[in-house]
Amino acid sequence: MVRSFVTPAAGVVLLLSGCGGSADPAAGASEVLAAEQVFVDEPVVVPDASGTSATLRVSTELDMACAVVFGRDESLGDGIATDADMGGGAHTDHQAVMGGLQPDTEYFYRVQGSGADGNLYRSELMTFRTPAADGGAPGENVASGADVADVSSEFSDAFAAGNAVDGDLTTEWSSDGDGDDASITVDLGRRADVVGGRCAAGR
Predict the structure, then answer these.
(1) Which whole number is the average pLDDT over 174-199?
(2) Among 126, 125, 118, which residue's Cα sits nearest to residue 18?
(3) Which of 54, 115, 121, 186 could, after both became Cys, cross-link 35 (CB 3.0–4.6 A)?
């Protein structure tokens, strides 16, 4: 059974080996259970206006380490979206960016992972569709590749300030608890007309 959700928001999850197959309890492996039974709400997917990436979000009732596998057919061979968890452990609010997508294309995906209860979880196959490429999307990203002149703080090397200007939607900068005082200053290296801006969801 394939369930289709075209939703207004999105994010999730880290692929655990064995999540995709059946487990044999008699052999000492954990049982594979339906992920839907631990979802607080159904997963939601928000494609980017360019149609080249989409963010999946889902919350679970128990701490989990999980991942989203996705593809243009039911083999899910296009990629794995890992959970953007700064703490590095199991948790309940999951978010992941699926990159390298094609505009105006239907994708299949499945959420799977390992729960704090020792069980493996796997969702049913679901789908979303990317929008057609937006001809009115912003032009050149003048901040891509710019030099970071100053930053209030960095959560860790994995969330360094340079991630804010590396042009990769699957990486991010996070401050070390600066809240509304978080700031980053970049040197574009030239004069540039800035006609718009876009912020990714942050922490």
Answers:
(1) 75
(2) 118
(3) 121
